[in-house]
Predict the structure.
Amino acid sequence: MAERSTLATMWARVQTWEGFLVCVLIFIVLMNTALSPQFLTLSNQINLFQLSIEKIIVALVMTFVIINAEIDLSVGSMMGLAACAFGFLFKAGVDPVLAIGITLLIGLAGGALNGVFIAYVGLPSLVVTLATLIGFRGLARVLVEDRGITDFPLWFDNLGQQGLIGPVPFALIAFFALCALLWVVLQRSGFGRKTYVIGTNREVAAFAGIDTARHKLILFTASGLVSAFAGLLYAARVGAVRGDVALGFELDIITMVLLGGVSIFGGSGTLVGTLLAILIVLNLRNGMALLNITGHIQTGVIGILLIASVLVPRLNVSTLFGAKKHEEGSA
Amino acid sequence: MTEPLLALDHVSKSFGSTHALTEMSLDLFPGEVHAIVGENGAGKSTMIKVMTGIHRPTEGRVLVDGEPRVISGSQAARELGIAAIYQEPMVFPDLDVAENIFIAETGGWLHDVGRQRREARALIERIGMNLDVERAASGLTLAEQQAVEIARALSQDVRVLIMDEPTASLSAHEAEQLRRIARQLAEDGVSVVYISHRLEEIFEVADRVTVIRDGEHISTRLIGETNTETMIAEMVGREVGNYFAKGESFARDEVILSVQDLSLDGVFENISFDLKRGEVLAFAGLIGARRTDVALALFGIHPATSGTVSYKGEPLAITSPKQAMDAGIAYVSEDRRKLGLAMPMAIRANISLATLSGFLSGLGLIDRPRELETAHRFRESLNIRTPDVETEVGMLSGGNQQKVMLAKWLNMEPDLLIFDEPTRGIDVGAKAEVHDLIRDFVRQGGAAIVISSDLPEVLAMGNRILVMREGEQMAILDHVDASQERIMALATGQIERERAA
């Protein structure tokens, strides 16, 4: 135990899922660098994040939801609803700053609606958020009908499209700030610990005096709020909204979280894993784009990656590496 | 002498550097019930897995009918007539009893239902059970489910039947039924391997008993040539002090909990008792007596519908666990896996679970050093045997898991601890330690309710014993007036209910 070489420690790290993801990421980055001279330029790196910035922000909160052994399928629709609500209010002559405030409140309320049905009525989150996936999207389409709404104030569009600090845009700063904040919450706070315990076994948490329903309500409300925020970022970045904004985004978001090693059954996974998975997906897509590989094939490759991410942990990463399997005589 | 049906000949099994079995030898003869006892982690499961082909021995031979055999898996074991049934039987709730018995019969897609039911009836009769084979398995008691499993094994011509702690979660009456089945099978020429933590039942059922410790064979004796003390000494390799000591009383004058006519509609009714500081009140009764439900009402999980609870002299209506905990009431659940511990999480995180808010800094962050220090302190004081407090709780033996669960609640510094089956499925060594911990707790002024289906435990721990039957309070006995016979008579309704003054 005491005599553990640094090499052995490193080897042990590589055998964790996060270690595995780091290796994959390094491989992809090296390949990209070798294949394309533009890859390592700052503008490409920023662009790489910007293209999926809304999804990756929501993926951070989704990590909490899935660790809690729940799922939120309504995030894409909430992003769409938020973007459309903002567009609708703006066109109706509401002050844009006030419109942003109202939109965020809609996110809060929509998330709380999910939360109440899941935590207090006791319905499965899969069902509740599937219903709101349809409901929020319907509402979004009612608000904007067949129109596309554009001509937002210049400062709003600039917020999404131009650098705020040097070339780094607001959304990217928001993403990394949220990353740091949520890492502390999940990995270091009492709230984070409860997220894991409830996800591992809700009954055990309840028998330890933890208010599990309140916890779930907070998580779903946060998920709605952050989704609405991401929807606003989308409107600013694209400079236009339509009824199909962020259609199907929930699947990409859940893919990133699962690829990050978060168990769909709850209780395990880390924010670092999700972040690594995000970087892998973004770099892979970017690298393939630089090589002129079409979007459909890109999606196919990401799909294969997801299947691998579900299968490989089942094979047990350590057996994969030929390590000794530890068995426990229980009687 | 007849030839052994199954024999292990100097079998060793290791996993990496861990030696689970070392040079284990064992002979199993037809017509005997052979008990195997040992502490948790002594190697009993590994031994079963070697016999049933799940593990291959690293060294040594397995002989069937005197011939060395390589058993390649549980299917191969079944074909040789070796089968095992476990504490938690595997039945399919939506199928009926007969279908469950013949579940492995997959030949053809047209089943002769009439024939199947006739044969099922014959098998059930053979083991002396009274069970309708057309009933759905979902309504069966645990003992009946086990009977179904045994019948299933019999239908496949079992010759060596391994029963792994079959009575661990059964009531006394059901356990007796199961032991009768084991005897019946032995008389029919089956070789029964019987693994149990309940030493007293081994004397009723077994012909021979083998003690194993740390993966090694310690002794095999005829049952008439050994006794409980010898067995325990051999199992733990040391003397265990007061396993059967009768509870001395540390009762003080202050009544901490006074319960009057507590009822939960359709579950239990009119439960009334007083509990003093320093006192242990044991709850005895059969499975289904609703003892746990009373505990859950006191802990706020399923609040009572009528009656009054007075706690530390003041009326208290408990409607949530949080409220009970704030008042100083802790409940140590009977079900470690489902209700007690977050199995994949570290020992450290489990110990701080019930008192998490006490470990938080102003910003809501967990004070890791203090959390770690607390875990180390309990590991020391409760003698939790683990290399590291970061170890997953699920990797520990039952006894050590129980101690982690105790640590979780002791850290709350409760005044009233409710223990639900505190020593179920844990070995004698750990059992004595848990009993000592409960005694220490009340000696220091705490009060305890101990729910137990283990009568020697009830008698050893309880200063007074509340006997329940089907949701009714039958009596409160002082421990000097209590005996196993008296408690059983009350619990089974042979004696009418007597109201304690």
The CA atoms of residues 18 and 273 of chain A lie 6 Å apart. Residues 53-246 of chain A form one domain. Confidence is low (pLDDT under 50) at residues 317-331 of chain A.
